[in-house]
Amino acid sequence: MTIIRAVPAGVGSYLPERIMTNDELSKTVDTTHDWIVERTGIHRRHIAADGEMTSDLALHAASQALDMAAMEIGEIDLIVVATATPDQTFPSTATRVQNRLGMHHGFAFDVQAVCSGFVYALSVATQFIETGKARGAIVIGSETFSRILDWSDRTTCVLFGDGAGAVVLKGEAGTGTTADRGVLSTELRSDGAHNASLYVDGGPSTTGLAGQLRMNGREVFKHAVRNLAEIGEAALATANLTSSDVQWVVPHQANARIIASTAQKIGVEMNRVIVTVQDHANTSAASIPLALDVAVRDGRIRQGDLLLLEAMGGGFTWGAAAVRW
Ligand code: UT7
After folding, report:
1. 224 Cα nearest atom in ligand 1
2. What is the Å distance from ligand 1's center to 23 Cα?
C-alpha cells in the first residue's frame, strides 16, 4: 500500500549568544553549582538578549533547517510554532516567522502545550502532510522562558533557558511499513486536573500581564517518569515497534534524573539517549528539536535510525512520537 509519510528533510537550531552559568546564578539566589548539577544535570543555559524575541530564535532555526533540507520556501505550505512564550498575545509567532521567511501562501499557527509543544506540533503537522493538505511543513519549538521566570525563586529560575529548534517535514510516498522513513506514530495526552502544579500566574484574561512561572517540582517529577514511560511505549506499540527497535531516544530535556529513569523504564540504555540538558537547561518546546539538531550534526543520528521522542509539560500535557529519521 502506498501512503504519504511526513519525512524529516532537515533540522536546525539556534541558541542566544549569552551563556549563564550556575555559578553566576549562585550570586543572585541561594543556590550552588553542585546542587543544580546533582538534582538536575544542568551546568549552563542560554539567555536571549534584550529585544531578542521568540520569533527571532525561531527564524534562525527554521532557516537552518530549510538549508539542510535544500528546500525553497515555495515547497512549504505550513508552519507550526510550538511556544508558551509568544512575542505577543496575537498575532501568532508562526505568522511572524512566515512573513520573515517571505512565505505569503499556505498557513501558519502556534500550538501551546508548553514543554510537550514540539511533540504536539509534530503530530499536527504530520496529519496535514499525511492527508495531502500540505506538501511540506516547518515544525518549530521556540521559547524565551527567561522572560517569564521569577528570578528571585531558586526553585524555578535555575531550571530553564532560551532557544529554538526546527524540523522540516516533506510529504513522500511510503509503503505503510515500519521500514518507511518519516513519522511512524504519535501519541498525545493531557489532564487538566494538574493545571495548578505547573502554570504561569498571569495572562491576557486574568491579570493582563504575562505573569511568572510557578511549579510544584516534586509533583511534576513524580508524574513525569510514569507518564513519559507509558506514552513512549504507547507510541512504539501503535507503530508495531518495541524499545529494542529504537536507535535513539530524544527526550524533552528537563532533568537528567527524569531522562535516566524514563529510559530505564522503557528499557533503553543511556548510551542510546541524547542528553543536552547540561548545556541548554529546560528550553520547553525547543528542547527536543535542539537535541535532535545536536545529534544529527555530530553524526550520532543517521538517516534510517528509529527515534523515540517523548515530552511532558504544564497542563499536564505529554506525548511521544516514533520517527524513522
Ligand atoms: O518540563 C517540565 C517541567 N519541569 C520539570 O520536569 C521539573 C520536574 N521537577 C524537578 O526536576 C525537580 O523536582 C526539581 C529539580 C525542581 C527539584 O528537585 P528535587 O530533588 O525534587 O528537590 P525538592 O523540590 O524536593 O527540594 C529539595 C530541597 C528543598 O529544601 P528542603 O525543603 O529539603 O529544606 C528545596 O528548598 O532543595 C531546596 N532547593 C534548592 N536548594 C538549592 C530547591 N531549589 C534549590 C536550589 N538550590 N536551586
Report:
1. 6
2. 17
Question: Where does the pLDDT of residue 302 fall: very low under 50, low under 70, confident under 90, or very high at 90 and above?
Answer: very high
Dist. CA 191–CA 49, nearest whole Å: 35
User: What domains can you pick out in the chain, each with its CATH number?
Assistant: 3-174 (3.40.47.10), 182-324 (3.40.47.10)
Residue nearest ligand 1's atom 8 by CA: 221
**In sequence order, what DSSP letters do the residues of 76-122 get, joined into one string?**
--EEEEE-SS-SSSSS-HHHHHHHHTT--SSEEEEE--GGGHHHHHH
Phi-psi region of 114 (alpha: psi -120 to 50; beta: other; left: phi over 0): left
**194 in Cβ contact with 102 (< 8 Å):** no
Q: What does the alpha-carbon distance between residue 35 and residue 201 come to, in Å, rounded to a whole number?
A: 26
Mean pLDDT, rounded, of the chain: 98
pLDDT at 320: 98
Task: Report the distance separating Cα 15 and Cα 196, nearest Å.
Answer: 30
Q: What residues are in contact with ligand 1 under a 6 Å CB criterion?
A: 31, 35-36, 39-40, 115, 154-155, 158, 198, 217-218, 220-221, 224, 254-255, 258, 282, 312-313
Query: Over the stretch 8-44, which tens digit does the pLDDT of each residue have?
Result: 999 999 999 999 999 999 999 999 999 999 999 999 9
Read off the amino acid at residue 304: G
pLDDT band, very low/low/confident/very high, at 1 (cuts 50, 70, 90): confident
Active site residues: 115, 252, 282
Predicted TM-score of the model (pTM): 0.98
Q: For cell 499536564, name the residue.
A: 316
* 161 Cα–ligand 1 center, Å: 17
